[in-house]
Every structure is written in C-alpha cells, then in structure tokens.
Amino acid sequence: SRGITVRNMMKGDPALNAYPFGHVLAGFLAHITGSWQGGKGINPTLIWICFCFVFSSLQSVGFAGWKLGFLSVITAFNPVAVYQISCFQIDGHVASLVTCLLFSMMRILASGPIRLDGVLALVAAFTGSAASKTSGVFYAIIMDGIFLLFLAGLSRSWRRVFLLFAVALGVSWPLGVYIRSIGQYAPLTLDYF
Length: 193
Hints:
Blueprint: H1 2-10, H2 21-33, H3 42-61, H4 65-76, H5 79-83, H6 91-110, H7 116-132, H8 134-154, H9 158-181
C-alpha cells in the first residue's frame, strides 16, 4: 500500500495532499532516481543522520576511539530503523529522529552552560520528529517537556532555561507541524482530536 503510494507520487499523482511528509520525501527520492524502490533511501539516510547526531553527542561527553564508533553505530542502527530499512513505513523515520532528539538532549546536559549548538541540535531533532508523523509530535512534546523540567531543576537560572527552550520549541514545533502539513497529513487542530 505504501509502495503504491510512493509509485503513484512518482508518476505525478495529483492527490499529493493526501500523503504524510515521509511519503512525500520517498516519492521525491523515487522520482529523482527513476525507480520507485529508490524511495526507500529515506530510512538509510535518517540512520546516517542519527549516527552523526549520536557520534557528536557522545564525543562531547568524552567518548573516543572504538567505543565512540561502536556505540554510535549500535545506537543509530536501532531495531525499528533496521527493521524498516527496506520499506516505506514511517516508524523507522520516527525511531531515528527520536534517537536524535534524545542525544541532542544529552548533548545539552553534558555541555554545562547551555550552548547554541546544543539548542540548534534540539530544534533540528524536534522539527524532524514533529514533521514525520503525528506520534512524532507527541513523543517530542512529552520528551522535551520532561527534559525542560529536569534541566530547570538542575539549573540555578530557571528563567534562562525556560526562555531558551520556549524559543527553541516556539520555533521548532510550528515549523515541524508546517512541514508535516506539506503532504496535507491531517492538520493538528481540535477537530482532528
């Protein structure tokens, strides 16, 4: 069914507004490669992005050498992403993006004072999670909310932590929901719930 969706999008199906954003990306990739099977490249691409997030986050914590590479590979190749590496399911997208979200949070915790690179990593991971699927929006909101409370509890400056994350979420959540709506997946309104 999802393969047919991507194949129809590759052929220029006018009903583009009925598909989730992950399928829109897969259809675009299939169109570029000229093969509808090429649309399956989204999951391996997200696994690579996840590897980069995990690698840089573990490096900032102090891991080095073979432990750094091994832990990065094992984490990026999480069971859900690996299981769906050769299909059009979006759950592999969510798994990779939520892993990026968790490791961007770890990066912020490990860096001591909040730095711009950590906040940008969090915004990118949250935006990707929110754009991938409805459950990605809710996973990201729940994890970010818990993380915000935890970080505010550790910090002496509640206002600064709250302001930084309010700005980060204020940018990433609407951006993620907007990107998600490009494929006109059901809009997140009260009518949807």
